[in-house]
Amino acid sequence: MDRIEFEDALQSYENRFNSMQPEMELTIRDPEMGVEGWVVVWSTLSCKDGPLGRVGKGGTRIHDRMSMDELRMLARTQTLKNAAANIGTGGAKSGMKDDPTSEGFEQRYRRFAQLVSPILHENGGPWGGFGYDIGAHPDHCLWCCDELDSTRCFTGKPVEMGGTDYDVEGIAGLGVAVAARTMLEETGRSPSSATIAVQGIGAMGAAVCRYATEHGMTVRYIADPRIGGCWRIETDFEGPLAEAVIAMDFDAVKAELEAGPHIRTDLDDVLVQAVDVLFPCAVQYVITADNVDSIAASAVVEGANNPCTMEARMELAGRGVTVIPDFIANPGGAIAAFVELVSKVSDEENARSRSKVNEAKEFTENTVADNVRQAMALADEAGVDLVRAGLYLSYQRVFGEV
Fold first, then answer.
1. Residue of 89, 95, 252, 337 with fewest CB within 10 Å of its CB?
2. Residue 42 near residue 78, CB atoms below 8 Å
3. Is 103 in the same domain as 237?
């Protein structure tokens, strides 16, 4: 495919995708309890012939500024991500407008779960169920499963409940690290010589640190408001510091950093470091037209959902910076959720063998590596950037044309 053919085909796909409307939008409110939330199922076309039928899946995001508009954006991106991963679920997201640390949240969360339960896949609806996202806590799984008297209503569960424990296992972060490793290898660079900066060390960023280190990369910078800013790591990333980061024990991380030779700077400094790979793993739109000129990394591998605006992605690509977009790099959570939904392994066997965890990790690693290679090959063939090559592959799968 030459560039003209590629551009024409991509434009046709984009027009079709942009004309799509959500298949389902549900607003839930209980004014007496102060409950407000939503579920958006964007598209299930890619999975119409899959083992679950037309079911949308994505995590449950919770914060006090949550809105339907944010959920629409997330569900739309999840559609691309799930299609790119070639799994049997379409794109969807759920969310609550609430502070998960506030008094009475458990009761409000349980009420939210009850109110949306009729649209759950297990109850004949188009939504695959609750999961982890920003604002989530392991207790939410226990509350939800207890309230609905089901372990199939929530994905990312502990292994003894039949789950993949994907936040604890960091399966999404595994995929992001694999994306970086594959990109480095395909361009003739050794991961063991690569330096990285990780913005945000929550579940995603902590797992990226873990698996990138296992692949030989050197963690040079980490940043998170919970550890007091951006830190340049002046020693090997190992021992108590690495253990505290992986465990997301922010107090211990901060204590280790302050006790060592490490150097603290302002929080946003992590974005401007001249490293081989920058991993934005916090929230959306941290790299925009306003700050894209300051990005000095050789590559940006997106761990968060939409951490770069499309304008910033194109600007970076135009400067020769490799950008691996989130829908290619971080489908690990969606893959783990799919494994939980379709696996026939019993809870007892899963607790003993961790077979669902192992399956989800292998599925994630193989899928992400293959997709990065395919996108890079298409980008080279058509003479385009990696972001648009990845979009092309995702659109094909959204519409079932591969």
1. 252
2. yes
3. no
